[in-house]
Design brief:
The complex is a heterodimer of chains A (about 425) and B (about 170). Helices cover about 45% and strands about 20% of the residues of chain A. Chain A is α+β, with helices and mostly antiparallel strands. In chain A, the strands form 5 sheets. In chain A, strands 3-2-1-14 form a 4-stranded antiparallel sheet, covered by helices on one side. In chain A, strands 6-7-8 form a 3-stranded antiparallel sheet, with helices on one face. In chain A, strand 1 and strand 2 form a beta hairpin. Chain A starts with 7 loop residues before the first strand and ends with a strand. Chain B has about 170 residues and is an alpha/beta fold. Chain B has a single domain, classed as HybD-like (Rossmann fold), CATH 3.40.50.1450. The longest helix of chain B is centred in the last third of the chain and has 19 residues. Chain B starts with 12 loop residues before the first strand and ends with a helix. Classes of the chains: A alpha+beta (about 425), B alpha/beta (about 170).
């Protein structure tokens, strides 16, 4: 329904309800100025925090994997690291390598899905992935092939591609053999070629001219491009241990959303995800990814959120390179997991989900019963920044008609890949008189 | 519109439950295929049963090459909770996904994935030989595991209908 307002307009976009996320957007302008921006995204972790209390300390990897169908490994491994931290256990060597390997699969799968099926249509003027496939079938076929390589990696290490079942506190239920992993070399080498082609493809898109001086927050590992733990750092001097995360990150309720909004300190918005990782860790990328980033025109620091699609493609290439390296160097572990005995205490675990830093905290008793759980997902950390971007994008584009402005807003939201479901399909624009 | 891809199929049947078992009645697809899996005749390799979250490319992978794909999904169409709708998708239509009514398109908490998967599958030549979508009207899509009594009853009826469709 469309109504014309004499001096003000309201863009209200109700999301199609989907499972991993339900989103809605409300933007109101008056006399040529934006007066309100609200983004609502459904947040499953809130339910799971309550659901986990009273459960055994061995259960969070399998239970929290259900929070997100597209990034279960991130939830599993943040949970494992937090529980192992509480119990005073460190998982390293081949088991840590396997964790990095399965995480590569998740980055490949999740990023590729977003790049090809959700975000690329915005840049190419296609209304959907179906229309994109009609126009450029080889490109979409390449995306599906690349995504499948990620699936296969997760399936081999994780036991199955969706909600992997082989991840446990302390390691894995079963470790793959060198021979089994060797079967992934050819498909992963093909995936690396497809990933390089993907970087070149998205580098040719036209990007809206918008930049912002964000506060970027990501993990920083001693040697690796960030995946598993490390310091939590920012471009404004933050440099803390994972255990201090909640000393600096404050989550608050806002009236228009059931999701929590996160800030650094009292009110500093910040950004997690590919742009933050790249800007704080580009010196840790695989050489081929560094070269591809440079060819794609990415500077050492990128502040244009629309170029996040290029950074995602670079991260997919990095993940393919890393996976091949991990497979080549893999030594079968003596045991598929280390023993983890329950110990009363609190543990913290951070990993880099495809969408950004994912924090878990568990308090357990000496019998291993979970007394308290806290999960801070990337989307709640990014929501204030997304609203900020929407505010400025709308202000700068008030001359657009409702359809074009709505499309630009949706594209802006998708810069952050808030999740497979809530990033994709908003419906029904209304403009109301004020 | 460009030419669509050709679809090559076998005699395999795949039964796909779509949904999230942690969103109450959105789990009807998952629960139903568990029932069907338990009823599979021993040694029957003709029928494959799987649970998915509705992400379109996973559906393409699951039904690729199948002679018949049966998708079971929750719906939120305004019908009486527990009621069942069966839709045989016209795969010869230029827009087969549009043929899905509220049962599995706008109603479910996720099934835009099914509609998109059908559209993508047509363009990319990744559709099954036949595609049947069963929608089961849910009553409660809140957080948490477990079905409402109405949806549970619906699952029993739907399981019987599926057995009839698969083996009778």
């Amino acid at each position: 329904m469309t109504h014309r307002a004499p001096a003000g307009r309201t863009l209200r976009v109700e999301a199609l309800a989907r499972v991993e996320g339900e989103g809605a957007m409300h933007i109101e302008t008056r006399d040529g100025e934006v007066v309100d921006v609200q983004l609502r995204i459904y947040e499953p972790p809130r339910f799971f925090e309550a659901f986990l209390r009273g459960r055994s300390f061995t259960e969070p990897p399998d239970l929290t994997a259900r929070i997100c169908g597209i990034c279960p490994v991130a939830y599993q491994l943040s949970a494992c690291r937090a529980i192992e931290d509480a119990c005073g256990v460190t998982v390293d060597g081949p088991l840590e390598a396997l964790r990095r390997l399965i995480y590569c699969g998740e980055w490949i799968e999740s990023h590729t899905l977003h790049v090809y099926l959700l975000h690329a249509p915005d840049f190419l003027g296609a209304r959907s992935a179906i229309e994109l496939a009609e126009r450029d079938r080889p490109a979409v076929e390449r995306g599906l092939r690349l995504k499948k390589a990620g699936n296969e990696l997760i399936e081999l290490v994780g036991g199955r591609a969706i909600h992997p079942v082989n991840v446990k506190v302390g390691g894995f239920y079963r470790a793959p053999t060198r021979r089994e992993l060797a079967a992934l070399v050819d498909p992963m080498a093909r995936a690396r070629d497809d990933a390089l082609e993907t970087v070149r493809w998205v580098a040719g898109f036209e990007f809206p001219d918008y930049e912002h001086d964000y506060t970027f927050v990501a993990l920083r590992e001693p040697q690796h491009y960030p995946v598993l733990g490390g310091r939590v750092v920012s471009n404004r001097g933050l440099d803390i241990d994972e255990a201090a995360f909640l000393d600096h990150v404050v989550e608050e309720h806002v009236a228009h959303s059931t999701a929590l909004h996160a800030h650094l300190g009292d009110d500093e918005d910040y950004l997690v995800g590919p742009l933050a990782r790249y800007n704080l860790n580009s010196d840790r990328l695989a050489p081929l990814a560094v070269e591809a980033a440079r060819e794609a025109g990415l500077d050492a620091v990128c502040r244009n959120p629309y170029r996040s699609i290029v950074v995602r493609a670079v991260e997919v290439l990095h993940a393919c390179e890393t996976a091949l390296s991990l497979i080549a160097d893999y030594e079968e572990p003596d045991r598929p997991s280390v023993d983890v005995e329950p110990a009363a205490g609190v543990g913290h675990g951070c990993t880099e989900a495809p969408r950004g830093l994912l924090y878990h905290r568990y308090e357990i008793d000496d019998a291993g019963t979970i007394l308290d759980a806290r999960i801070v997902p990337p989307t709640s950390q990014n929501q204030p920044t997304i609203e900020h971007d929407l505010w400025h994008v709308v202000e700068a584009n008030l001359d657009l008609d409702d359809a074009a402005l709505t499309a630009l807003c949706e594209q802006t939201i998708r810069n952050y890949d808030p999740c497979i479901s809530c990033s994709a399909h908003f419906l029904d624009l209304t403009r109301t008189d004020r | 519109m460009s030419a669509v891809g050709a679809t090559s199929t076998t005699g395999r049947t795949v039964v796909i439950g779509v949904g999230n078992p942690f969103r109450r009645d959105d789990g009807v697809g998952d629960v139903t295929v568990q029932r069907v899996r338990n009823l599979l005749p021993r040694g029957d390799r003709r029928v494959v049963v799987t649970s998915l979250d509705g992400e379109p490319t996973r559906l393409l992978d699951a039904w690729g090459g199948a002679g018949l794909a049966i998708v079971i999904d929750a719906m939120r169409s305004g019908a009486a909770p527990g009621s069942i709708e069966r839709i045989e998708v016209d795969l010869d239509s230029p827009h087969p996904g549009v043929a899905l009514p509220a049962a599995a398109s706008a109603g479910s908490t996720h099934s835009a994935g099914v509609g998109e998967a059908i559209g993508l599958g047509r363009v990319l030549g990744r559709l099954p030989g036949r595609l049947v979508v069963y929608g089961l009207e849910g009553a409660d899509f809140g957080e948490g595991p477990g079905l409402s009594p109405e949806a549970s009853c619906g699952v029993e009826v739907l399981t019987a209908r599926l057995c009839e469709e698969l083996w009778c």
